[in-house]
Structures are given as C-alpha cells and as structure tokens.
C-alpha cells in the first residue's frame, strides 16, 4: 500500500495523466519494494490559481507542470523515503520531461490499523494481508 495523491494543474490530456501515474507506480515499486499490484493512486486537477506552491526560499522556478505527490503509508525508513523522492523525481524528469523543481513530495505516515481495503475489515490487523 502506499496511497498516492497527485495534485496537478488542469490541462494535461488523459494519456498524459495515465502516463504520470504509470511512471510514478514504477518509481514506487522500485524504491519501496512493494508488490506490483499494490497500486492506489488518485489525481486531483486544479485551476492554476487553486495551487500555490512557492519554493520556501530555495530559488525554484515552478511552472504549470507542477506536481504535488502526497504519499500516505505505514512507517518507512529515512533511506526508503529518500530513495522514493529521488526515484520519483528522476523518472518524472527523464520519462515525462517534468523539471525536478516542479516536483514536491509529502510523506504522511500511519499504521496498519488505519487501512481497510474493503468489506469493512482492517486486513493488516486480521492478517488477511
């Protein structure tokens, strides 16, 4: 599981959004070592004025290609998180032409009891997973 939420500025085609999700999934599988079918992704598209993502004084130049990726997952090591940040940013640049300055990643941790994959059951707790 992680759950990935993507906030992007509207204007990408359906094919571009699908490609973004596919590339992100490969990056997550490689970086975190999760199973291929462990894929949960949601895209929210916004008008340009609905996303304000400055650079926290780092000197980044954001464009309309900006992508905010929020990762909700159980606890991961610092090394795994850093691998994910790097792999995701590198793949977005290489395969999608998205500048690393346009990729912001946020990691939100939770625990096994915080997940139900369906049927009203916490599958990690019941040991179904």
From TrEMBL:
Gene3D superfamilies: Macrophage Migration Inhibitory Factor. It comes from the Bacteria. It holds the Pfam family Tautomerase_2. Signal peptide: none annotated. PANTHER family: TAUTOMERASE YOLI-RELATED. This is Tautomerase family protein. It comes from Aerococcus urinaeequi.
